[in-house]
Design a protein that fits this description.
With 155 residues, the protein is an alpha+beta fold. It is built from 4 helices and 5 strands, in the order αβαββββαα.
Length: 155
C-alpha cells in the first residue's frame, strides 16, 4: 500500500484554525464564569482564612457568612452539630452552601476551616487538622443529627 498509511496522523489545516480558536475562546469564557461563581462562595483554607471568634459556634459562622456578602444574598445556618471542643455548621449561601468547622479555645469559639459543598469526614483531619478521635466524634455526631445523605440503593 501507500507509505503514507504507516505515518498517518491528524494534521491541522489553516482552515481548521478559526474553528479551534472559537472553541478555545469558548473554553476560556466558561472557565472565567465558573471562577467568578466559585469565587463568590465563601470557602477558606486554614492559611488564608479570616479568623472569627464568638461565644457560640453559630456566632462565629454568622460572622463568616456575612464577611464580604453581596447585598441581597440570602445566607444562613442550616444546622450545627457539636462534639467536645469541635462543631460543624452547615450553611446556605444563595443557591449554594457549605460547612464551617469551629473549635472551642479558652471559652471562645473560632473557625478553623470551611468549604463549599457537603462535608467529608476526612476533610476534618486532613484540612482542618482536627485530631483523629475528635474528628471521628464530630463526624458521628454530624451523621446522628441527620445531615447525611440517603444511602445509595440498587434499582
Amino acid at each position: 500500500g501507500d507509505h503514507r498509511d504507516l505515518h498517518s496522523f491528524p494534521t491541522r489545516r489553516s482552515s481548521d484554525l478559526p474553528y479551534s480558536w472559537g472553541w478555545l475562546l469558548f473554553g476560556i469564557g466558561c472557565a472565567l464564569v465558573i471562577n467568578f461563581f466559585v469565587g463568590a462562595m465563601p470557602s477558606a483554607a486554614q492559611d488564608e482564612m479570616t479568623v472569627f471568634t464568638g461565644r457560640s459556634p453559630e456566632a462565629v459562622v454568622e460572622q463568616f457568612l456575612n464577611e464580604d456578602k453581596p447585598e441581597g444574598l440570602e445566607v444562613g445556618i442550616v444546622r450545627t452539630s457539636q462534639a467536645g471542643d469541635y462543631a460543624i455548621s452547615t450553611y446556605y449561601y444563595g443557591e449554594g452552601g457549605g460547612f464551617v468547622v469551629v473549635q472551642r479555645t479558652d471559652r471562645q469559639w473560632q473557625n478553623i476551616c470551611a468549604d463549599g459543598g457537603a462535608p467529608d469526614g476526612a476533610y476534618f483531619v486532613n484540612i482542618c487538622k482536627v485530631p483523629l478521635e475528635d474528628a471521628q466524634a464530630l463526624w458521628d455526631k454530624y451523621l446522628a443529627d441527620g445531615e447525611n445523605l440517603t444511602p445509595p440503593t440498587r434499582e
